[in-house]
Amino acid sequence: MRYCALSFSHRKTPIELREKIAFNQEDSFAFAKKLKDYGAQEVLLVSTCNRTEFYFYAESIEEMIAKTLKELAEIKKISEEVLSANAEVYQEVEAIHHIFCVVSSLDSVVVGETQITGQFKSAYKIFFDAGLCNKALTRLMHFAFKCAAKVRNQTEISKNSISIASVATQQATRFQIQHNLPKKALVIGFGEMGRLSAKHLLTQGYEIMICNRDQEKIKKFILENPKEGYKISSCVFEDLQKILNFYPFVFSATAADSCVISKEMVQEVEFKRFWFDLAVPRDIEHFRDEKIEIFVVDDLNQVVQNNLATKRENMHKAYQIVGIATMEFNQWLQNLDVEPLIKEIRELAKQASMKEIKRALKKGYIVPDQQYSVEKILHQAFNTFLHAPTQKLRDCVNKQESDIILESIKSFFDIKGEGVLLNAYKCEYETPVK
């Protein structure tokens, strides 16, 4: 069994293709179940605005990649050739290094943003609870989250970090000043990206209207942001047509499978408008209008690149941390074999026996001529005592809880230091990203 990653990201895959292969939660489950039927022992699928990636633990990587591309082509109605040309494949150590980089936000459009770590924690939790990923991917994700925490804590890569939402807000403010527009913005959709957009807009002094199906989310947000001077109002999706044309700035980030704003909804107004489509698939239909400028996530990349210069030194240190974490994970995997553990326990028993025999000789409890016989008796006694536990250890190797059992035993006997997975199966997915 080996680790593998199949990636469609902003690095190589254009947004026009990324939006076609994006998955919602329900569809991602169905697709992952098919991949398990095709031979993947464990599967994790992560789909964000910048990437759709498949992580496998499987016996034949080449076969899994071929089957995934074929199934993806059939479901999404895209040719396998196009998919293959725009995909990146990572195997074994490369796959481990890749996921550590992604979770640590070194592969993000906005290097250092913490949103991707939270997205992976959410995806892992959902897939683990659904039984689609278990021991092998839990091991990988556990180390990936630890690596991300080290990158955040040991570098300044996330200090004053920016996000796509903050970059869009900065752009909006630049246009607001340039065209002398009122600070009024419409936020459509209120998932993580929508909330981030709203926070950044409020901080910049915008009056915002939040358009979302779930009004309870908005009420909770207003209660959590009671700052004096904040102007927040809300409406339901059914009102979008009526209010769309009153706002010079629109930030759209829904989870819809198709566009929520079409050309037919646009009415002519006197002021210039700037719309930021932060969703994949895109929320805003592609059309031309002299008074409307539409920006998608890939359009904001240049702004982000300009901010990278100040992070170069921290990125170098962050990649060192990722490299060390990759090496440590591989070494840890190699130490998971139960036979060396059994051998070490037997060796500890032997050392204890010899220590007591020497003590008995010194104290005169036995004479030298009896040493060999006593050694044989103690050796047989420990063999009898350890027979059942060692058999249990061998039996547990393929069970989900084996990592916890092995690490606990190492901890009890003080073998090879710290037990790193004693609480593995929450895998930090309930720990908020600071």
Outline:
With about 425 residues, the protein is α/β, with parallel strands linked by helices. It is built from 16 helices and ten strands.
**CATH topology term of the largest domain:** Beta Polymerase, domain 2
The number of helical runs is 16
Order of helices and strands: EHHEEHHEHHHHEHEHEHEEEHHHHH
Main CATH class of the largest domain: Alpha Beta
N-to-C span: 35 Å
Helical amount among residues, as a percent range?
40-55%
What would you say the CATH architecture of the largest domain is? Answer: 2-Layer Sandwich
Shape descriptor reads elongated
Largest sheet: 6 strands, parallel
Strand content: 5-15%
Number of DSSP-assigned strands = 10
Q: In angstroms, what is the radius of gyration? A: 28 Å
Structure report:
The chain has three domains: 181 residues, 2-Layer Sandwich (Beta Polymerase, domain 2), CATH 3.30.460; 140 residues, NAD(P)-binding Rossmann-like Domain (Rossmann fold, 3-Layer(aba) Sandwich), CATH 3.40.50.720; 58 residues, no CATH class. It is of the alpha/beta class and 434 residues long. The C terminus is likely disordered. The strands form two sheets. A six-stranded parallel β-sheet has the order 7-6-5-8-9-10, with helices on one face. Strands 2-3-1-4 form a four-stranded antiparallel β-sheet.
Write the layout of secondary structure elements.
Blueprint lengths: L1 E8 L5 H7 L3 H13 L2 E8 L3 E8 L2 H16 L3 H6 L2 E4 L1 H11 L11 H15 L5 H20 L9 H16 L4 E5 L3 H12 L3 E5 L3 H10 L6 E5 L4 H4 L5 E4 L20 E5 L14 E5 L4 H8 L3 H23 L3 H26 L7 H26 L5 H12 L21
Parallel strand pairs: 5-6, 5-8, 6-7, 8-9, 9-10
Antiparallel strand pairs: 1-3, 1-4, 2-3
Helix pairs in contact: 5-7, 5-13, 6-7, 7-13, 8-9, 14-15
